[in-house]
Amino acid sequence: MNNIIIGVDLGGTKIMTGAIDAADGRVIGTPIKIATQSHLPKEQIVENIAQSIRQVMTDNGLQKQDVMGVGVGSTGPLDLDLGLVLDCPQLPTMQHFALREALQQAVDLPVALNNDANCLVLGEAVFGAARNKRVVLGFTLGTGIGCALVVDGKIWNGATGTAGEIWCSPHGTGIIEDAISGQGVAKIYKQIAHVDASSLEVYQRAQQGERHALDAWETFGQHLAVPLAWCINLIDPDVVLLGGSIATAHPFFMPAMMRGLHAHICPLPAQRTPIVMASLADNAGFVGAACLMRPSSNP
């Protein structure tokens, strides 16, 4: 039986491709990571993705009949119905490009496509920290903020495929992503310390006990509590998942986030709704993308 799925995590800087067992999510062999080189022509990027898929199959002795299909989690925005990459600044040569169809032709396998944040949360809902939970609300915290809802093991895409796109929602005098993102952390830190530092540097300084860095993460946690409270009150999920590179700093922002959250959500979820950290680490992107091809994950 074709019980193997290949997943592709397509970002602006890297492409990560790996195979999983569809039954238990076990990663098969060693994933392949290559540079996206987003300046290349779209046809060359597709060929590079296709070659990474072929290499994973070769490395693991897989034939086409062994593979259920390929799931792709791509940075967006995307047109999910048509399988298009739309106006994506991270993939400038792929604007309005039919990625799903092109990759399907290149590898001669079924291909499913969805937003990378949706895929990360799907993977965690099916095989990760939120496994066996019916309604999973997930946030990816990194260069920007992503949000996704998975219900009964299926991504809730919404009427236009943009469910969870909260990044542009109003917050203070700007939008949520101004504060809740890597750049947001850097901005908060500069307001407090009056010097420039990347979010990684702010994290490292917090680890060293620097007061300005600790204050910056506390402020970040206060900001993060706002969209979490809105979404929890609206959806009432079984679990809330936090993932992405910024989530690594959760020991520094979680206390302030939880205080703000419990002050503004209903009493029962305040008592019962757990906040969990993503567990699939670097594999989360391609494992979640592979989950798009599981029959139970199709809407």
Automatic annotation (TrEMBL):
InterPro entries: ATPase_NBD, ROK
Gene3D superfamilies the record matches: 3.30.420.40
Pfam families in the cross-refs: ROK
Similarity-based family: Belongs to the ROK (NagC/XylR) family.
Protein name (record): ROK family protein
